[in-house]
Amino acid sequence: MIETDETDEAIIRLLQTDGRMSNREVARQLNLSEGTVRQRLKRLQETKAIRLGAVVDAARIGLTFSCYLQIIVAAPKLRKAAEAIARLESAAFVGITLGEHNLIAMVNSHNRDDLADIIQNRITPIDGVLHVDAFELISAYKHRYDLARIR
Amino acid sequence: MRPDSRPLDALDNAIIAELRADGRVPNKALAERYNVSEATISARIHALADSNVVRVIAQRDVRALGYDFMGFANIFVAGRPLLDVAREIAEIEEVASLSRVMGDPPLIAQVNGRDRHHFLHVIEKQISSIAGITHVSTHLTLEIVRFNIDLGTLESE
């Protein structure tokens, strides 16, 4: 776990509201030197405690249709199937899970026909895939995009 | 009309691509690259953020925050309006995302936990006890094979 102190936290809080705020502005607001801000950010990013990047709304760049897939894969084929799905451009998330299903994926697409095509013609035929439950996304009640898996 | 219904033009799309490649690329560099003023770039970036198209923010690593466990909860609801149940679930800190989906379960949540006990506590005590939830079925993530962290929903209901 990466240790962060009060100064790191204060810098992160500012950049959680506007990630493009300049080092100079961060320094001014926190009464620090620009060099300190630069060094702190360098360390936080290098240790992957934070990522300063763009988050794009999938629907606003045309990826209007999304689907959660809960899949049962024959155990010996699980890893290969997971990797095959992860290679699909439309896959936003692929995880090996413990539960009723052993693979969970999220796929995004530009239209519904395409989404159905990905599920029925790209994923279902993968060797080892036994059963696919598809749950089309209607809306998001919550999405903590300020939290991410960076490392 | 929703504020985000403005169509994106070529410059907007170029800026989105640039920000996805480097979230902190200076306005000045973009202005030179696209032969427009820095003020134009600045205004465009603000408009894109205000209309929930793209936002540059500091994202924190969940594991650096001590959350080593992640799983999904299929949440089944009956006898209470879905939105009321969803609002209560969304308030739980450990719930990273909550989606309304077509089918049964109507809700799928992504849940973070510090460890196995904490994860179980959130599922059993915090989520399952909400009125209107008939049962919760969980999938614990053993390994993440792919996770695009730069795509999401910027505007929640």
Question: What does this protein structure show overall?
Answer:
The complex is a heterodimer of chains A (151) and B (157). Chain A has 151 residues and is of the alpha+beta class. Chain A folds into two domains: 6-46, Arc Repressor Mutant, subunit A (Orthogonal Bundle), CATH 1.10.10; 58-136, Lrp/AsnC effector binding domain/regulation of amino acid metabolism (RAM) domain (Alpha-Beta Plaits), CATH 3.30.70. In chain A, 36% of the residues lie in helices and 32% in strands. Chain A is built from five helices and six strands. In chain A, helix 2 packs across helix 3. The radius of gyration of chain A is 20 Å and the shape is elongated. Chain B is α+β, with helices and mostly antiparallel strands and 157 residues long. Chain B has two domains: 7-50, Orthogonal Bundle (Arc Repressor Mutant, subunit A), CATH 1.10.10.10; 69-140, Lrp/AsnC effector binding domain/regulation of amino acid metabolism (RAM) domain (Alpha-Beta Plaits). Chain B contains five helices and six strands, in the order H-H-H-E-E-H-E-E-H-E-E. A four-stranded antiparallel sheet of chain B has the order 3-4-2-5. In chain B, strand 3 and strand 4 (107-113) form a beta hairpin. In chain B, helix 2 (27-34) packs across helix 3 (38-50). The longest helix of chain B is centred in the N-terminal third of the chain and has 13 residues, at 38-50. The model of chain B has no long low-confidence stretch (mean pLDDT 90). Chains A and B meet through helix 1, strand 1, helix 4, strand 3 and strand 5 of A and helix 1, strand 1, strand 2, helix 4 and strand 3 of B.
